Amino acid sequence: CNYCKEPGHWKNDCPKKKNQKPTAVTVQESTSSSDNELVLSIVDNHQQSADQWVLDSGCSYHMCPNRSWFLTYEERLGGRVFMGNDMPCKTVGIGTIQLRMHDGVIRTLTEVRHVPDLKKNLISVGVLDSKGFKCNVKNGVMEIKRGSTVVMRGFKKGNLYMLQGSTSSISESVSVAEKNIPDLTYLWHMRLGHMSERGMMILSRQQLLGNHTVKELRFCEHCVFGKQHRIKFPKAQHSTKSTLDYIHSDCWGPSQVPSLGGGRYFLSIIDDYSRMTWIFITKHKNQAFKCFKEWKILMEKQISKRVKRLRTDNGLEFCSKEFNDFCKAEGIARQYTVRNTPQQNGVAERMNKTLLERARCLLSNAGLSRSFWAEAISTTCYLINRSPSTVIDCKTPIEVWSNKPANYSLLRVFGCNAYYHVNEGKLEPRSKKGLFMGYGDGVKGYRI
């Protein structure tokens, strides 16, 4: 100082000249050994906007007095910061605050201390330096850089460097945060075998998708390839009173491409009351009777009820002598459709259409050849039984059938990479890579 010849200030700031106590920026060391006691520089007494932030090289942490600015917050009582005049201020919490910078980019300050008695918002240059940022000061401009990118900029005002930017509002921060949250809607769409958006919303409201909120489903080309059609069959009315009262069945095929097991047909069996569906892959149509007979015995033993009515078309696989004799012996009433009128067996026909549509989606999504159609059909049937249906009050078939909700935690995307354990020798790899092909029947495992 050219006035009092003492170090630490300029002539214009000389306290003897102004007859006042000094207000220079100083750092006071804490005399306590507590980890919760911090060091803070005292800034000058010039009035600043409450929204302005000071780039301070003298404070130990980022600090802010305004609780409403914190995007995330955790109470931490007992901490203290010391001003340059040894006056302590309490810290009551820690959290994150988002700032809109000079370039419009919103950046997040982490580990910001909440100090209600503080008069300024402080950004610690020391903390930024410890995190790998570089600080350049030249011609009254302070720039904080990460590599060659300027992430913060401050201009000198008096003896302080004020951040060129402002605090981002909570609503703006939440909006930005929501944009940064990955949208898992399309992933669940694939996991659920290209289920409709409405069905996914029903599962989401029941909190069955891991607390994920289903958003608007974006365009899915695989659904176009698999589900596009010209006309709908009219909806059938649901009027049965119990499971196995009324059964629909139909046989589809032959497939132009045989499955990996040589199958060219599949038999679908649908319970009218629950809409529970079973499929059987067969090599020949005449195997339909054998599959139905085995299914009937198993189901009646499982739920202690009997099949009462069976509706099919007039195909030879359903009108054979052995099939008719079996139904008469078991007391099953037969209902047939009029020739060339598939609409009269609408439940089974629509189910076959849905199975094929979603199976095509799975094959397209996985990039697999048509020889995997049986695996895709089986997986689709498994997922349809766990998909909400409007004819049963938006419940799932397996829930109506078994009185237990479906479990979605083990679902995987059809055709995704899968690693399975092997034990071929002490020096051989312990796993091999394959493709997920669906869900095991009667076992707790996946088909690979």
UniProtKB/TrEMBL annotation:
Under the heading Pfam families, the entry gives: gag_pre-integrs, Pol_BBD, rve, SH3_retrovirus, zf-CCHC
Q: Which molecular function term from Gene Ontology is one that the record holds? A: nucleic acid binding
- Protein keywords: Hydrolase, Metal-binding, Protease, Zinc, Zinc-finger
Which terms does the UniProt entry file under GO BP?
Answer: DNA integration; proteolysis
CCHC-type domain residues are 1-16
**Superkingdom of the organism of origin:** Eukaryota
Which InterPro entries does the record cross-reference, listed alphabetically? GAG-pre-integrase_dom, Integrase_cat-core, PolX-like_BBD, Retrotran_Ty1/copia-like, RNaseH-like_sf, RNaseH_sf, SH3_retrovirus, Znf_CCHC
Q: Which residues form the Integrase catalytic domain?
A: 230-405
The protein's matches in PROSITE patterns, at most eight in alphabetical order, are given as: INTEGRASE, ZF_CCHC
Q: What is the protein name given in its UniProt record?
A: Retrovirus-related Pol polyprotein from transposon TNT 1-94
Q: Which organism is it from?
A: Cajanus cajan (Pigeon pea)
